[in-house]
């Protein structure tokens, strides 16, 4: 089975990248993480992420204890949310569409290790969470996954394959549980 995205191997991080990561880590620990959950501080956290290269739409929110490994690989649409305790291991790109939510303590992982060799080289593949999708609490989303528009990933699910639009999935590994349908009063919103 051919992979839809070529694996990007991360054999050695450049000195410049390591320095950038170190500076981000210090900023995260002293200026981002200690902030309370008030609107004014939400804006401050988004400002810090943007200063480090994140592309974030209007109305988006990021909790103070959400950790983004490399903000320059984060793209959030309008009204997207990263909740408390979310871990975004963004060695590769993470793209979140409009009105997406990643709930408490979920792990979004764009990288892993090659298991076909003894060297276990690190590789990265992008993750896309399409518009109106929701990744529930403590779920794991692996490298290269696309979560289709309007889909819901159940709590503590493990997603290692693409999810079709408007599906509800759950389990380990995640499998389709049912179609997601909106009630009549929600269709025009």
From TrEMBL:
<protein>
    <submittedName>
        <fullName>Putative colanic acid biosynthesis acetyltransferase WcaF</fullName>
        <ecNumber>2.3.1.-</ecNumber>
    </submittedName>
</protein>
<dbReference type="Pfam" id="PF00132">
    <property type="entry name" value="Hexapep"/>
</dbReference>
<keyword id="KW-0677">Repeat</keyword>
<keyword id="KW-0808">Transferase</keyword>
<keyword id="KW-0012">Acyltransferase</keyword>
<feature type="transmembrane region" description="Helical">
    <location>
        <begin position="22"/>
        <end position="41"/>
    </location>
</feature>
<dbReference type="GO" id="GO:0005829">
    <property type="term" value="C:cytosol"/>
</dbReference>
<dbReference type="InterPro" id="IPR011004">
    <property type="entry name" value="Trimer_LpxA-like_sf"/>
</dbReference>
<dbReference type="InterPro" id="IPR018357">
    <property type="entry name" value="Hexapep_transf_CS"/>
</dbReference>
<dbReference type="InterPro" id="IPR051159">
    <property type="entry name" value="Hexapeptide_acetyltransf"/>
</dbReference>
<keyword id="KW-0812">Transmembrane</keyword>
<comment type="similarity">
    <text>Belongs to the transferase hexapeptide repeat family.</text>
</comment>
<dbReference type="GO" id="GO:0008374">
    <property type="term" value="F:O-acyltransferase activity"/>
</dbReference>
<keyword id="KW-0472">Membrane</keyword>
<keyword id="KW-1133">Transmembrane helix</keyword>
<dbReference type="InterPro" id="IPR001451">
    <property type="entry name" value="Hexapep"/>
</dbReference>
């Amino acid at each position: 089975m051919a992979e839809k995205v070529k694996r990007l191997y991360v054999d050695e991080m450049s000195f410049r990248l390591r320095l950038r990561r170190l500076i981000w880590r210090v900023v995260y620990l002293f200026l981002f993480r200690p902030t309370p959950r008030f609107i004014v501080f939400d804006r401050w956290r988004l400002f810090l992420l943007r200063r480090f290269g994140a592309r974030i739409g209007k109305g988006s929110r990021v909790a103070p204890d959400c950790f983004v490994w490399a903000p320059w690989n984060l793209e959030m649409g309008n009204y997207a949310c990263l909740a408390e305790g979310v871990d975004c291991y963004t060695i590769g790109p993470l793209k979140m569409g409009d009105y997406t939510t990643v709930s408490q303590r979920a792990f979004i992982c764009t990288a892993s290790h090659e298991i076909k060799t003894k060297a276990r080289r690190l590789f990265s593949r992008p993750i896309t969470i399409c518009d109106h999708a929701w990744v529930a609490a403590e779920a794991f989303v692996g490298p290269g996954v696309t979560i289709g528009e309007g889909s819901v990933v159940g709590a503590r699910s493990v997603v290692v394959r693409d999810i079709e639009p408007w599906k509800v999935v759950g389990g380990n590994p995640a499998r389709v549980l049912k179609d997601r349908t909106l009630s009549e009063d929600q269709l025009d919103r």
